Amino acid sequence: MTGRRVYAVLTGDLVRSRVIKDACGDECICRLKEVLAEIGKDYVAPFSIFRGDSFQGVSSDPGEALRDAVLLRLKLIAGFDRDNSALRLDARVAVGIGTIRYLPADGSAGEGDGEAFRLSGLELDAMKKAGRGIIVTTPWEDVNETLSIFCDVVDSIIDGYTKRQAEAVMLTLEGLTQKEIGDRIGTSQSAVSYRLKGTGYDLIQKILEWYRLQIREQLD
Fold this sequence. Notes:
The chain is built from nine helices and five strands, in the order βααββαβαβααααα. The chain has a five-stranded mixed sheet, with helices on both faces. It has helices at residues 17-24, 27-39, 65-79, 115-130, 141-159, 163-173, 178-185, 189-196, 201-219, and strands at residues 6-14, 45-50, 54-59, 91-99, 134-137. By secondary structure, it is α+β, with helices and mostly antiparallel strands. It has a domain at 6-140: 2-Layer Sandwich (Alpha-Beta Plaits). The two termini are 21 Å apart.
C-alpha cells in the first residue's frame, strides 16, 4: 500500500495488565479481543494483538480515529464485569495520522511501515511515561497543538468515569437516544439522564466534531 492517501494507525496496550491478568487470568484478554473486533471490523488492517496485551490496527477513515480511540476505552471500562476499581480494564491508545508506505497483502498491521505507523509508535512510548490515555498526532503541527490539549481533556474526563457512566456515554456516542439506552440496559430514560449528568459527554462530542472538521479541511 503506497501513495499519498492518509490513514490512521491505532496502537495501544492495556493499563496495569499484569495486575489484572494475575487477578482475572485470560478474561481481560478475551474482552480486549471482543472490543478490538467491534472497533476494527471495517479497518483495512483489523486489530492484531502482540506482546500479550498490545494491539495495532489501521483505519482508512482518519476522521473517525479519535472517536474509535474513545469508544475503545469506554467499551473496555464498561464491559469488564468487575466492581473492584483496582481491576478497572482500560487502555492507552496512540493514534498516528499519515501516509502508509507499506502494508502486507494479508493486512497484517504489525508489519506495516510509513508515517502513520511511526507517529503512532512514538507516541505510545511517550504516553507510558507521561501517564496519558489518548493521543492523536497528525502531520500538521498547527492541528497538533490544539489537538494535544483536547486529547488531555478527553483523557481526564474518561479517567473519572464509573463503569455505568462509561456505558451510558459509549452508547450516546454510538448514536442512541436516552430512551434507547434505557431500553438497552433495562432502566428508565430519567435514570439514563441522571447517569449522564456530569459526565461531560457533550464536551467530548464537540471535541470529536472539531477533530473531524480539522481532518476534513486538511485532506481537502
